[in-house]
Amino acid sequence: MKIASIQLEIKDQESKEQRVERAAGLVDQAAQDADLILLPEIWATGYFSFDRYIEEAELITGPFVTLFSEIAKSHGVYLFAGSFVEKRDGNYYNTSILFDRQGKLAGTYHKTHLFRYGSKEGELLTRGDGAKVIETEFGKVGLTTCYDLRFPELYRQQVDLGAEMFLVASAWPHQRLEHWKLFNATRALENQSFLISCNCVGTTRNVLLGGHSSIVDPWGITLASGEEQEAIVKSEIDPSEVSRIRETFPSLKHRVL
After folding, report:
1. Which CATH class is domain 2-254?
2. How does DSSP classify residue 135?
3. Other beta carbons within 10 Å of 243
4. Per the residue annotation, which of 56, 86, 132, 146 is the catalytic one?
C-alpha cells in the first residue's frame, strides 16, 4: 500500500477557510498515488491558536468532516484527516477522524493525553477515554495524537486490541525534535507495528514546529521522513510484514508482565 503524509505548514496569517482550501488541494495532489493519506493535529485552526478553539469548534456532522468525507470518496482513498476541535454535548475534544475509500467515517479518536506544558489544551478540552483501534482493509489501525507518544501503555493497549499500524496526528515543536524522532521509532519497534506520523511545520504563535513526519516499519527503521518544510512524505509498505516479523522475532509473545 502507498502512504502519503502531508506535512502541512501552519501560517498564522491564514484563516481556517484558507488553510482548509489549501490542505484540500494537497490531498487532491497526494491522492494521485496513494492508498492512505494523513494530515496533522488541529491543523485547520492551528494547534497553538488556543484563542480560536471554541469559536472554530465544529460538530462531527459539521462542514469540516463533511468536506473530507467527500474528498476521500471522490478519490477512493483512506484519509486520516488529522484532528479538529469537536464540539459535543457541551464539551470540546481533540478529535481525529479516519475515512474509508467510500468516504464513510471509519473511526474517530478523542486524544487521551492532553498537553499542558506551555499549552492550554488541558484547560479547554476534555480528554478521551483511551485506546481506539479501527478495522480497515489493510489491517487493524490504532489512532493516537501527538503527546500520546510519550505514554507507551496506550500503544500496548492498542496492540492488545489487535493493532498492526499506528497513525499519529501531531503539532510537535522543534524544541523537542529529538524526542519526536525517538518516540516515532520506539513505539513502532517495541510493538512490532508500522507507525505513520504527520507533523506540522512553520512558526505559529512564536512556536517553531518540528516536521519530520515519518513512516516507520515494525523493526523501528524509518522508511521515509520529512524535513522542516511543507512536503508530502511518501513510502510504500507491505502490511503483511507485521505478522511475518512478529512470528520471526516473537517478542510480544514473550511478555511476562
Report:
1. alpha beta
2. E
3. 13
4. 146
Q: How is the chain split into domains, by residue range?
A: 2-254
| Contact residues for 208 (Cβ-Cβ < 8 A; gap 6+) | 173, 174, 175, 202
In the chain, the amino acid numbered 76 is G
Strands 91-99, 78-88: pairing kind: antiparallel
pTM summary value: 0.97
Residue 205: enclosing H or E segment and its boundaries?
A: none
The CA distance from 187 to 236, in Å, is 20
Q: Annotated catalytic residue: which of 41, 56, 58, 86?
A: 41
| Catalytic site includes residue 111 | yes
- Residue of 87, 111, 132, 140 marked active site: 111
The tens digit of pLDDT for each residue in 165-218 reads: 999 999 999 999 999 999 999 999 999 999 999 999 999 999 999 999 999 999
Cα separation of 237 and 51, whole Å?
39
Q: Distance of CA 222 to CAs 42, 120, 196, 215, Å?
A: 25, 32, 10, 6
Instruction: Name the nearest CA neighbour of 157 among 187, 182, 132.
Output: 132
Residue 41 among the catalytic residues? yes
